[in-house]
Amino acid sequence: MIAPPDRTPLPRTFFDRPVLEVAPDLLGRILVRSTPDGPIALRLTEVEAYDGQNDPGSHAYRGRTARNAVMFGPPGHVYVYFTYGMWHCMNLVCGPEGRASAVLLRAGEVVEGAELARKRRLSARNDKELAKGPARLATALGIDRALDGTDACAPDETPLRILTGTPVPSDQVRSGPRTGVSGEGGDGDLHPWRYWVADDPTVSPYRAHVPRRRRG
Question: I need a surface site. Which of 58, 124, 162, 212 has the fewest CB within 10 A?
Fold first, then answer.
């Protein structure tokens, strides 16, 4: 008999570690989004690590800005950014305060509140696609910049929380190059910092970076 997932919230000490330790350890954990219409919960199946000023693929590589300020704050907070003028993506801040690093949440399996997620993701062909990709995950959970800076480890009620869930055994974790990252940051030999659950149908397909063409 398979034991049910642990619903205990992860403590701040979980996130107060190097990002390359936290990222694979997030697989199998449960992200809960509380909304006025009810909760939505998903099991994390794919993530990417970004190591701040040591990482050319990170938003914090060139230092602190108004956009990435949350990454320099305490661990366990949520960093949300807006991309391509259309999509939001959610990250969890790791490591000690002042040293920017974060884990991008790329994909997950909706395990509670699927009916609410479906209303936000009308183009999904099935429930496996509800949160298959970072923008889809954020859309399914109703995440936007208003949640930037949210403390996912707050002792009081919070709109986002990470539960212990059921950690994925190391022999079921795969790693490789990060999706859509250009230059050195996208080199899978130097930065094999995308982690996913082997053979899980909710994991997004890998896509290499393709330079955007200017309109002539």
Answer: 212
Phi, psi of 72 (to 5 degrees): -90, -5
Distances (CA, A) of 161 to 97, 121, 124, 152, 202: 19, 21, 25, 5, 21
- List, in order, residues 6 or more apart from 143 with CB less than 8 Å away: 33, 80, 88, 90, 137, 160
Cα distance between residue 16 and residue 22, in whole Å: 8
Question: In angstroms, how far is CA 114 from the centroid of its own chain?
Answer: 19
Q: Which helix (H) or strand (E) holds 130?
A: none
Question: Which two three-digit tokens encode residue 4?
Answer: 């049910």
Could you give the CA distance from residue 44 to residue 108 in angstroms, rounded to a whole number? 4
| Residue-wise pLDDT tens digits, 154-179 | 988 899 999 999 999 999 999 999 99
pLDDT digits (tens, 9 = 90+) for 22-59: 999 999 999 999 999 999 999 999 999 999 999 999 99
Predicted confidence (pLDDT) per residue in 95-132, tens digit: 999 999 999 999 999 999 999 999 999 999 999 999 99
The encoded tokens of residue 128 equal 């496996």
What is the value of pTM for the model shown? 0.93
Residues 116 and 125: their CA atoms lie apart, in Å, by 15
> Dmax over Cα atoms in the chain, in whole Å?
61
Under 8 Å between Cβ of 121 and 136:
yes
